[in-house]
Amino acid sequence: MSAWRRGDAVVDTDRERLDLAMMHAFLTRSYWARGRSLEELREVVDHSLPFGLYRDERQVGFARVVTDRLTFAYLADVFVLDAERGRGLGSFLLECVTGHEALARVRIWTLFTRDAHALYRRFGFGPLQGERRERFMIRERGAA
Questions:
Q1: Is residue 85 part of a domain?
Q2: N or C, where is the chain less crowded by C-beta within 10 Å?
Q3: pLDDT tens digits, 39-70
């Protein structure tokens, strides 16, 4: 397990500490995870490197990375509770995620976002450019 502290905020990778009920309540109201069941949330956390964000021992944010730890990392389910925004906690969480020693050799990071482009740009993310746009493909459940 890894842990980082900044002021009264802590980020760690302790799966046992995660408040799945709070995470589920938040994520099922989000545009990207609407309809995800609690069991599905447990499963995606089990198959990811999870990062919990805490203030005063209470979880206030989350992010997870799906990765082989060398060639590819997919950043997903990043959030900070509405009441905790505006304190730099999202930036702190992303600093911890992108700076995690187990992910230091990852060549390509990806994510999907509809509304947080400015935040992710500060951590080196950007739109697909040039040849990469033509190379990128997606397959969704139900495809032939």
A1: yes
A2: C
A3: 999 999 999 999 999 999 999 999 999 999 99
